[in-house]
């Protein structure tokens, strides 16, 4: 889902710090980022929360691009300027030890950083439902695939080689998938959380319908067909989907189609008729009308603006 709503390529870096060190990361509305501690420890500091100590293997995800500071100690002065994923100068798209920051030879901390620039106007409701900060502390019982994805991405960034430009974004998407999967799997569903995406993703019929939409947005879906995919009759399914997802099935289908179309217009040279067909519109006129209503501009203008 994030791969469809992001703009441009994701960015990541493998960074080695020697204490004392401190780095501010800018607040970037419409972005999402994560930090993984590969070696050593550090502190995460933000203006409106208590400091959080991070250890080796800890993962932090910031789904709303909230500004924060990482440092070897809460008392260490912070370097300027702040790191901004929109700024191409401090980091290449996939940087490694070229961004090493050396202090006075103190203990080493190695971080794996990643950032996604998203389209704020088309943010997926799943991301909107998340808190500002998700902290997944390392522990042996957690799913092994998260650690494997971290190791693979770290290896690509530490020693870039042929194909890293293709492997890194795929691994970033995979890592983010595992972060979200673990967060929703481990979040308890109490009586106060019977709606929203946490509940939707734990509801097999609604999840089946969402998978059907995401897998094949061009299919001629109707409420009845989505209900069949969910294994329910039409009326109970429509009510259940709207309650958990926050909008009726066909409204979400249109949202997903237009978001997918926007991604195709930005990342491919496919003609409009092809983009239209890939998101379920045989009529270019109907597609253009729906796209303009969703994005405020015709698809051709949207593509030219980049």
List keywords for this structure.
12 helices; 6-stranded mixed sheet; about 300 residues; alpha+beta; about 40% helix
Q: Quick gist of this model?
A:
This protein is an alpha+beta fold and 306 residues long. The protein is built from 12 helices and 11 strands.
Which value, in Å, is the CA radius of gyration?
21 Å
Neighbour order of strands in the largest sheet: 9-1-10-3-6-11
Main sheet makeup: 6 strands, mixed
Distance between the termini: 20 Å
User: How many helices in DSSP terms?
Assistant: 12
The succession of helices and strands, N to C, reads HEEEEEEEEEEHEHHHHHHHHHH
Write down the overall mean pLDDT.
Answer: 83
Q: Please indicate the percent range of residues in DSSP E strands (runs of 2 or more).
A: 15-25%
Q: Which regions are unreliable across 5 or more consecutive residues at pLDDT < 50?
A: 90-100
Apparent shape: globular
Number of strands: 11
The helix/strand class is alpha+beta
Helix content bin: 40-55%
Helix and strand topology:
Elements: H1 2-5, E1 11-18, E2 22-25, E3 31-39, E4 42-46, E5 49-54, E6 59-62, E7 68-71, E8 79-83, E9 94-95, E10 108-117, H2 125-128, E11 134-136, H3 144-158, H4 164-186, H5 197-200, H6 204-215, H7 223-230, H8 234-245, H9 249-267, H10 272-278, H11 284-295, H12 299-304
Parallel strand pairs: 1-9, 2-8
Antiparallel strand pairs: 1-10, 2-7, 3-6, 3-10, 4-5, 4-7, 6-11
Model description:
A hairpin with a 2-residue loop joins strand 4 (42-46) and strand 5. It is built from 12 helices and 11 strands. The longest helix has 23 residues, at 164-186. Helix 9 (249-267) crosses helix 11 (284-295). A 6-stranded mixed sheet has the order 9-1-10-3-6-11, with helices on one face. A 5-stranded mixed sheet has the order 5-4-7-2-8, with no helix packed on it. With 306 residues, it is an alpha+beta fold.
């Amino acid at each position: 889902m994030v791969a469809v709503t992001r703009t441009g390529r994701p960015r990541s870096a493998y960074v080695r710090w020697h204490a004392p060190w401190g780095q501010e990361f800018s607040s970037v509305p419409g972005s999402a980022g994560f930090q993984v501690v590969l070696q050593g420890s550090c502190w995460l500091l933000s203006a409106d929360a208590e400091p959080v100590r991070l250890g080796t293997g800890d993962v932090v995800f910031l789904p709303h691009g909230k500004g924060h500071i990482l440092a070897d100690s809460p008392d260490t002065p912070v370097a300027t300027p702040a790191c901004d994923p929109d700024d191409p100068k401090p980091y290449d798209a996939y940087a490694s030890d070229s961004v090493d920051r050396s202090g006075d030879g103190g203990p080493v901390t190695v971080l794996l950083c990643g950032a996604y620039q998203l389209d704020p106007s088309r943010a997926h409701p799943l991301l909107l439902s998340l808190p500002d900060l998700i902290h997944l502390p390392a522990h042996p019982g957690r799913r092994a695939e998260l650690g494997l994805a971290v190791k693979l991405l770290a290896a690509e960034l530490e020693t870039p080689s042929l194909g890293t430009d293709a492997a890194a974004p795929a691994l970033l998407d995979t890592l983010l998938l595992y972060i979200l999967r673990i967060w929703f799997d481990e979040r308890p569903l109490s009586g106060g959380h019977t709606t929203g995406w946490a509940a939707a993703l734990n509801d097999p019929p609604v999840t089946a319908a969402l998978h059907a939409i995401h897998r094949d947005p061009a299919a001629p879906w109707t409420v009845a067909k989505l209900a069949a995919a969910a294994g329910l009759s039409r009326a109970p399914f429509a009510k259940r989907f709207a309650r958990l997802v926050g909008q009726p099935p066909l409204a979400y289908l249109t949202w997903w189609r237009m978001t997918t179309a926007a991604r195709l217009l930005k990342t491919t040279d496919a003609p409009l008729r092809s983009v239209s067909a890939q998101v379920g519109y045989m009529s270019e006129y109907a597609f253009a009308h729906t796209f303009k209503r969703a994005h405020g501009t015709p698809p051709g203008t949207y593509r030219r603006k980049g």
